[in-house]
Design brief:
By secondary structure, the chain is mostly beta strands. The strands form 5 sheets. The chain has a 5-stranded antiparallel sheet. A 4-stranded antiparallel sheet has the order 7-4-9-10. The chain has a two-stranded antiparallel sheet with strand order 1-2. Helices cover 4% and strands 32% of the residues. The radius of gyration is 21 Å and the shape is globular.
Length: 302
């Protein structure tokens, strides 16, 4: 990404056809954390990719770059009104088990720089560490090991979360489409998973260009419902909830975890409170929802 020349696949693909590409054959010098981008006009449905390492394979999807975005100079001036403004929250999973890594990714075809910083919070919403990454260029691919960001800082419960925010101290421009890839690796088995998230403005009285998107009307008309599958026994299900806030908001969330059976009937409910700018990591079998003698099926939790 950000380098020339590009490499082409010199063959045609028929409509509705698929083709497996070996990235190592096309780009033999590419190495993690370098990033690649696929140029295919508007002809391809979002492709998947596979990463094989140490006998394990994980599957994820290539994200979609936008061609209609331009830098917005006003974003750098909104700090006095919107606080952190656009922020991208992601879990720091329990550190004794998992290694958490963040990789900022350019997400607009004309984006040439990305001024960004990483902030780490404990589960109570207290900032424990911060690192400015400077004004990253399109050709930069900086994988941030969140262990190094924490630099010995302790996290109650051994977990927390990080937020990527715009940081204009080194200059640069922003378009409000801040994204990153996050990788989580089991320290003992090397099993890994990765996903990509995007930034929004969260929990503010003011709105800016349809942000926060979660408001169904004037603020604070916030209502969010998430659904989580449960696997069959003996599998357990884990969940990491984050309460992000661009400006100070309610001190704690009012979050209900609701268990439904396969027919959609509510059979149990538990109320939890998450601190503003904090998070909550939990497993299904650790909650009061797990009733003695019940056999867990695949049921949604909201």
């Amino acid at each position: 990404m950000g380098a020339t020349p590009t490499v082409s696949l010199d063959e045609e693909l028929a409509p509705f056809a698929s083709r497996a590409l070996d990235v190592a054959a096309l780009l033999p010098k590419a190495r993690w954390p370098q990033q690649i981008e696929v140029h295919a006009g508007k002809y391809l449905v979002r492709p998947r990719y596979e990463v094989s390492s140490k006998g394990r394979t994980r599957i994820a999807h290539v994200n979609v770059e936008r061609g209609d975005l331009k830098p917005d100079a006003k974003i750098a001036e909104l700090g006095n009104l919107l606080g952190k403004g656009y922020l991208l929250p992601a879990p720091i999973l329990p550190r004794k088990i998992w290694r958490s890594t963040a990789l900022p990714t350019p997400m607009a075809t004309n984006q040439q720089d990305l001024p960004v910083a990483v902030i780490a919070y404990d589960n109570k919403g207290r900032e424990v560490a911060r690192r400015g990454l400077g004004d990253l260029k399109r050709s930069d691919s900086i994988a941030v090991d969140l262990d190094s960001v924490l630099n010995g800082a302790q996290l109650p419960g051994d977990y927390g979360h990080c937020e990527l925010v715009y940081d204009f101290s080194a200059g640069g421009q922003a378009d409000g489409w801040l994204h990153a890839l996050f990788r989580y690796e089991d320290r003992a088995t090397s099993h890994a998973a990765e996903t990509s998230f995007g930034a929004h403005v969260f929990n503010t009285v003011l709105t800016y260009k349809s942000e926060p998107q979660s408001y169904a009307g004037p603020p604070p008309g916030l209502s969010t419902r998430l659904f989580l599958r449960l696997g069959p026994a003996p599998l357990d299900t884990l969940c990491h909830l984050i309460y992000p806030a661009s400006t100070p908001w309610h001190g704690e969330s009012a979050t209900d975890i609701v268990l439904h059976d396969g027919a959609g009937k509510e059979i149990a409910r538990e109320r939890i409170a998450i601190a503003c700018s904090g998070s909550r990591f939990w497993r299904y079998h650790e909650t009061s929802l797990r009733r003695p003698g019940s056999a867990p099926a695949i049921r949604p939790i909201s």
